[in-house]
Amino acid sequence: MARLPVCSGEEAVRAFVRAGWQLARQKGSHLSLTKPGNPNVLTVPLHRELDRGLLRALIRKAGLTVEEFEKLLR
Questions:
Q1: What pLDDT digit, counting tens, does each position of 24-69 carry?
Q2: Strand order of the sheet with strand 22-27?
Q3: What radius of gyration, in Å, describes the C-alpha atoms of the chain?
Q4: Structural domains of the chain, with CATH
Q5: Residue 16: CB partners within 8 Å, gap ≥ 6?
Q6: Which residue among 16, 45, 56, 71 is buried most deeply as judged by most CB within 10 Å?
């Protein structure tokens, strides 16, 4: 299993946007991302550092692997 990168909420949102997700709305410090043809909604908090469990769940929900997500972060 690949090691999860440490990233902020803003960095994670940028990576998901590169993967085709779009900003749907923002409420407070949480962004909701949607992707056409995908029924899932990703809710990303804009924290300085995302918890490992939350980040892994978001990556899985987006249909990505940890390796693909790391490439999108760069």
A1: 999 999 999 999 999 999 999 999 999 999 999 999 999 999 999 9
A2: 22-27, 30-35, 38-45
A3: 11
A4: 9-73 (3.30.920.30)
A5: 33, 42, 44, 58, 62, 72
A6: 16
